[in-house]
Structures are given as C-alpha cells and as structure tokens.
TrEMBL record:
Cross-referenced Pfam families: ADH_N (PF08240), ADH_zinc_N_2 (PF13602)
Residue ranges constituting the Enoyl reductase (ER) domain according to the UniProt record: 10-324
Protein name per UniProt: NADPH:quinone reductase
Native species: Portibacter lacus
A GO molecular function held by the record: zinc ion binding
Length: 334
C-alpha cells in the first residue's frame, strides 16, 4: 500500500517520503482493518519528525524511528474492510473515525488497523474530510473545555486560537454560550473572527496581552503555552480556570509535575491525560452533524503533499486544519 513514512528524524521536507510498497497490516481478533479515506495533519506529526524532545526518541526510537512506527498520521476516517472475530457492534463497510495515537500512528496510508475499542461510527451527514479533523484536534478542544466546565455567559480567553485545536476551541466555547476572546497573529484575525470569536487580541501588536484587564476571564484555554502559565493569574477571575492543552512540552511537564500556580480558588491544569477519547470524538462529530460547529479546513491535500504540509505547520502558515484525502491524486500517481 502507499504510505507516508519517515526513516530518520529531521526536516520533514527531507526525511518524510511517500512509498508504495508497505505491507497492508493484518487485524487481530479484537481489531478491524480500515480503508482510510481521510486523515489530518497534527502538531504531533511535526514534533515526532523533528524528535527534539527526548521522550519522542524513547517512544519512536533513539537514533531513528523504528520500522514498526515509521508511518506518520494520528487520526483517520474511513470504512471497515476486515473485522476481527471478537469485534461486536461494527460490520464491514461501516464508516468509522479513530484516534490512533495508541498505535503510534499509521494514518497517512491507504489502510490501518484499529483496536475496536477506539472506533467511533461516522454520522452520515459528516463528510470523511470533516470527520478526519476530529479525533485529535476536536477531541482535545472538547476535553479541555470540559475540564474547565464552561457556563453560558462565561468569558473564555483562547491562546493559539488560529490553530487546529484553537479553531475547534473557539467554536465549541461559542456553542456552549461563552463570550470568546481569541489570541492570534495578525494574518489569521479574519479567519478566527469568522469562526465566531467575539474579540480578538493580536499578539503581534506590542503590549496587547498586557492590555487585557485584570480579574476578567472565567477560563483561559491555552494551546500555545510558550510562556509561563502564571502570567494569566492576574487576568483570571478569583475562581477562574486555566487549562494548558499544548505549546512548549516542558511548560506542560512543569505544570503537571511541579507547577502549582493555583491561587485561592483559581485552578491551573494541564491536559495530559486522555480521558473518554471516543466519547469526546462522538460528541464533536454530533456537534458537526447538528451544524453547531464546522471544522475549519484550510485545504485538502494528497499523500504526496504531506511533507510540505508538516513544514507549513512549522512555519505557522496554517489556519485551522489541513486534511489529507487519500483519493486525491498527486502528480506521481496520476
Ligand atoms: N493534550 C492533547 O491531547 C493535545 C491534543 C492535540 C494537540 N495538542 C497540542 O496542542 C498544541 C496546539 O496544537 P494544534 O494542532 O492546534 O497546533 P497548530 O495547528 O500548529 O496551532 C498552534 C497555533 O499556536 C500559535 N502559536 C503561537 N505561538 C507559537 C509558537 N511559538 N510556535 C508555534 N505556534 C505558535 C500559532 O498561531 P499564530 O500564528 O496565530 O500565532 C499556531 O497556529 C500543540 O502543542 C499540540 O501538541 C495537545
């Protein structure tokens, strides 16, 4: 089968390549084989390819990625082709969606095996392209928002609002009745506003974050935590909640292990545990089917375009999500 693999760590445009001779994996009795229709690019893909964090090398291979974990891609939407004999509730031909992080990727390929417990049925009214944006980004946004318990009228500040998770964060918070202030860079303001943000803070403008009023926000939802989370103490309400979803890995680790920024009833949390992943995916898919939110797809690409797409994520030129459609022909195969 065709797949996007990496044999070394480094620049995605140099180490990530399209091959056409990967073996189609075989499901065991508790798994299914999914013919992938669509997948999506995630921040995780770029972190794994670069392997700048030692923990990634511990998981994927110290000096180079292990052969078994060499296919990139963390989320899939497709149809079931083969089914293990213990799998209940699904049949061949069912359209499904899955987060496949626990199998160390495999989504940028024509087929992937998925543990049945990770499968979510795709609603008919949600396209494969829309569905492929949900397992990592949509699900993490919902998990973060759930951790903060948003009530209608709450003031929510979203940092990294223009990214994959942020694009869902803005829309989910709005759907839950929040007043959303979004932090993003100048070029992405129009898109973020079109997703429903009530107010925009352009962090490229000097002093714009400092200008935020004190004691203002019920929730800070941070997908781009590249500075100390403690800087939000002053602008959070007395009983406000901060959730760190992503950004600098060491900030996340520090907050999780040592960083008790809690002050009075203010709570500082890091989204490091994957809780109720399939339930969250299902809920986000239903929100799309009910037209409460709409995945912000910047573009749809073919397998061959993936190295450039990962590079563009590094360059921060992506707005929302890039979807990979396995049926989209690329030059090498047309
Ligand atoms: N905990 C979980 O389960 C979970 C799940 C999914 C993702 N994550 C993490 O959440 C983070 C965001 O993921 P994502 O998919 O939304 O990523 P993304 O699509 O790349 O978006 C991140 C956004 O953050 C902004 N940003 C601000 N400062 C940045 C900097 N120094 N470097 C890079 N971006 C910066 C960029 O927007 P502007 O150009 O507008 O600044 C960018 O669009 C990642 O760290 C990811 O690993 C965690």
């Amino acid at each position: 089968m065709r797949a996007i693999i990496f044999r070394n760590y480094g620049n995605p445009q140099e180490v990530v390549e399209l091959v056409d001779d990967m073996e189609i994996p075989k499901p065991n009795k508790n798994q299914v084989l999914v013919k992938i229709e669509c997948s999506s690019i995630n921040a995780a893909d770029r972190y794994i390819v670069r392997a700048n964090y030692f923990i990634i090398r511990m998981v994927f291979g110290l000096f180079r990625p292990s052969k078994k974990k060499s296919i990139l891609g963390m989320d899939i939407a497709g149809t079931i082709q083969l089914i293990g004999k213990n799998v209940k509730g699904f049949k061949i031909g069912d359209p499904v969606v899955a987060d496949i992080r626990k199998s160390y990727g495999g989504g940028f390929a024509e087929y992937a095996i998925v543990d049945a417990k990770h499968l979510v049925r795709k609603p008919d009214t949600v396209s494969f392209e829309q569905a492929a944006t949900v397992p990592i980004s949509g699900q993490a946004a919902l998990m973060g928002m759930t951790l903060c318990t948003i009530n209608p009228g709450d003031k929510v500040l979203i940092n990294g609002a223009s990214g994959g998770v942020g694009s869902f964060g803005v829309q989910i918070a709005k759907a839950q009745g929040a007043h959303v202030t979004a932090i993003c860079s100048t070029k992405k303001i129009n898109a973020v506003r079109s997703w429903g943000a009530d107010e925009i803070v352009d962090y490229k403008k000097k002093g714009s974050i400092k200008a935020l009023n004190g004691n203002e926000f019920d929730v800070v939802f941070d997908t781009a935590s590249f500075e100390c989370p403690g800087r939000y103490k002053q602008i959070l309400k007395k009983d406000g909640k901060y959730v760190l979803v992503g950004g600098d890995f060491y900030n996340m680790l520090k907050l999780k292990l040592f960083g008790r920024f809690d002050r009075g009833s203010q709570k500082f949390m890091a989204l490091t545990q994957e809780v109720e992943v399939t339930k969250n995916i299902k809920t986000v898919l239903e929100m799309i089917a009910d037209k409460k939110i709409n995945p912000a797809i910047q573009k749809v690409i073919s397998l061959k375009e993936i190295p450039d797409a990962i590079h563009s994520l590094e360059q921060r030129t992506v707005i929302g999500k890039i979807v990979v459609n396995l049926n989209k022909k690329d030059v090498a195969n047309s």
